[in-house]
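Dear support,

I submitted the protein below through the web form. The confirmation email said the job was done, but the results page showed an empty box. After a refresh the structure appeared. I'm attaching both so you can tell me whether what I see now is the final result or a partial one.
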Amino acid sequence: MTFRHRALVFGALVVASFPLTARVGAQDSVARVVLPFELHGFVQVYYREGDPTTRDAFRLRKADIKFSGDLSPRLRWRITFDVSKSETLNKTVSKIGDSLAVSDVSVDQRSRIVQDAALTYAVGRTLSLDIGQQIIPISLEGTIATAKVETIERTMFIVERSRATGLGDIRDIGVSANGRALGVVEYHVGVFNETGEGAGTVDVNDQKAVMARIAIHPSVFPNFQFGGSGGFEGGPVKQRRERAGGEIQYMDSRLTLRTEAIGARDGNLRRFGWYGLSALRPTPHLQLVGRFDSWDRDLSQELSLFDAMERQLTFGVSYLLDPSTKVAFNVIRQTFPNVANPRAGTILMAAFQAVW
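What the results page shows now:
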């Protein structure tokens, strides 16, 4: 789908989502027909410069539009599109004589604009089932809505996806149980086709991925939580997936303190990342944030920027222009401590975003 086609689809969805009106009667009054679904959206645009691994540029980071509604007192539906995504292709190369030639081309389903497409069935007050394409329960920050993340970009173990898939804010097709137990235990447990790399596709193997996240909310410390997440998919070595992580957070109206660590195995590739974040809100409109972030995308070697451990120190400020609109500025110091000739950089980011 070209950018023009995506724009037309997005425009049609927005137009279709507005309440219909018709003029009736001699007094030219307005009759309003309310459509039987809810509309929510999120747009984020930012500018980034100074990163030695990418070019300076504006970027349409997110352009989400979400439709949802009730089918019955117990059953809800939702579908979300991200029309900022660029469709990519998977290419298969074969050797013909002494040359290489492309033998097959297919659409990378992860680049489709469809994000969530799921049904939610309420079993009781504290338990619901989600069936369809959904965010998998891995890492705390990976389950926080983009509009509420304190920094412009998420932590590196979620954002960096050059090798295998990210470790949070990823989707796959499956079924999950979500709820609370004993009033203090928040749980999310699901079975999915893969660990996030198979969104929008039919499972390519017989094994399924089991993913889970549990968070404890102590009643004596209502602003404090701790827990962990993980997952496993068996099979041959190249197919094997393992995830394990922990989280601690304190949050009130003025202050957020959060730290997470997560390790992953994808076949023979082993990865590890962690971060510590603090965010101070001296007024309801102003937020100051600092984060230390460490990410090793390949624990077996430190040969180049593409497999070396990376560290980032982020300082930022954001301001709510109104309850739905925010501007943010981040300064990021990026280093590669184990590379012989490091290419450290200072990255500047500015973002404008709105949610409705």
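Response: this is the final, complete result; the empty box was a page-load delay. The two ends are 26 Å apart (CA to CA).
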